Amino acid sequence: NHDRANNPLMFFKDKQTIFPRLCKIVPQIICAPGSTAAVERVFSVAGYILSPKRMSLSDENFENQLFSNLKRNVFQVRSNKLKL
After folding, report:
1. What is the pTM of this model?
2. Which residues fall within 8 angstroms of residue 11, CB to CB, at 6 or more apart?
3. Contact, 9 vs 27, CB < 8 A?
4. For 80, phi and psi rounded to 5 degrees?
5. Quick check: 63 and 46 in contact, CB under 8 A?
6. Which residues of 27-56 are buried (b: 16+ CB within 10 A; e: fewer)?
7. pLDDT tens digits for 11-45?
């Protein structure tokens, strides 16, 4: 079926025996976000990090700070949802 061949979810479902671990995370990786909230959050955090006083940050330091800040927020949200 042509539609099945063009659907990445179906492709990986067909390949479950070959790529069992990869197939578990594919739906999370290739799905589209339900809203723009996550993207807006990234830009908001980036704006705080690159304040006028901190414009001399290197690209690497900026990226590391952005990543660690967003990762911390993700863990807080997940732990609240899981009641950890």
Report:
1. 0.46
2. 5
3. yes
4. -65, -40
5. no
6. eeeeeeeeeeeeeeeeeebeeebeeeeeee
7. 888 888 988 888 888 877 777 667 788 788 888 88
* 40-47 own/partner pairs: CB under 8 Å, 24+ apart: 41/70, 41/73, 42/66, 42/70, 45/69, 45/70, 45/73
CA contacts within 13 A on the Cβ side of 62:
15
User: Hunting for tokens 């414009």 — which residue is that?
Assistant: 55
Task: Report DSSP state, residue 50.
Answer: T
> Whole-angstrom Cα distance, residue 8 to residue 40?
27
- Tell me which residue of 34, 12, 43, 6 sits closest to 25, measured CA to CA: 12
